[in-house]
Amino acid sequence: MNNRLLFLYKLVSAAAGLVGWPYFFWHLKSRGQGESFWPRLGLKLPAGLRPPGYPRLWLHGVSVGEIQAAIPLVAELRNLLPRAAFIISTGTESGQMLARKHFSPQGALVCYFPLDIPWAVRRYLDCLRPQVFIGLESEIWPNFLSQAHRMGVRLALVNARLSDNSLRSFLKYKRNLSDIFNLYDIVAPGSLPDLERFQRLGISPSRLNLTGNLKYDRLLQSRDELRLQEFRGCLQGSQPGQAGGPLWLAASTHPGEEELVADAFQELLAPYPALRLVLAPRHPQRAPDLARLLARRGLPCHLWTALKAGRETRTHPVVIIDTIGDLFTLCGAADVAFVGGSLIPHGGQNILEPAAWGRAPIYGPHLENFLWAKHILEAAGAGIMVKDAAALAQAVRHLLDHPQERRELGRRAQAALIPHQGAARRQAELIAGLAEEVSS
Fold this sequence. Notes:
CATH topology of the largest domain: Rossmann fold
Strand order of the largest sheet: 9-10-8-7-11-12-13
Radius of gyration: 22 Å
Shape: globular
Strand content: 5-15%
Structural class: alpha/beta
């Protein structure tokens, strides 16, 4: 992006910040949020002093998935750079909750990431003064990257992801966007198809490093059997015949999918009257809306917080997950798992989380953001794709009717992850190399 276009982008983004803040405020409030409003506009800077240590590493992940993927990367970076200081930022409030829970006790400064408007970017960079910035997956912010580059910050994009749709859009502006991408000292794609897409954008080959995907490392390393047993206990029924009923998890669902899941569940209650449904919306603050949706269908439910705290004992057939950070363990408690964001044109969610527990996931046809995961499972013969509520009910029933086949598919799904371990170490070594250049 040449200087004239960058200047134009700054003018447009500044105007958007000045004019668009009411929409941003409404957008947050409509989702039951608002804490991030002032910080992301750059009007409330991170609280507290910069964490002690050198080099100062700023790692940014948009939401829960990226922050979860960052856990093994930060662990490897601490091993390689024991005196480093860490700043962890998120773009969403759900991601912020998880980052505070996991990284604040380790001494990291956890904060929000500014919107890409000039004054917000400048205030954050002046406040935090990082030596190395690490973006996860698809962080392309021209104001932030250009300003950080001018300040001498080394830049890395790891677990880098680029969908086919994004590539088609970016190729229209390849000449300008390649300049922005080339501000990164390191671009580490998580898969070979992603690497090939970044190559087509004209990124310098010296900056590209195929390292594998962090999400593989996190999945197999994060299983907690004690926590799993605790969750299973919370999900047991208090009435005869309930405790032994099969459990179906519908994970990371979006509006428009819960109705399909409810349709399929009601159809399955005829052959499996003790079937339990755990419904985990992608955005837990939607739990009250889902409870009303289920009530209209005659499906009483519990909120997970009440069961987990022991305030209620499960008597209803449906449990709605209204917490952050519990979904992965719940995958291990399920007999059958469906992963949402895929029956509607959203792009999908991480279908490998059930696989890590030996559960072959069911998913819809819209997995544009997780094609790498789909290819891995389908190559292992462990992916199950459905197109609508009827097919979803049929797939769940087939797995419940054939437990031996269900276990074999789960074994294949879990085994498919093993050859892909080690991305966290490889990415950490690249980042440590940048840190050494800063200190030399």
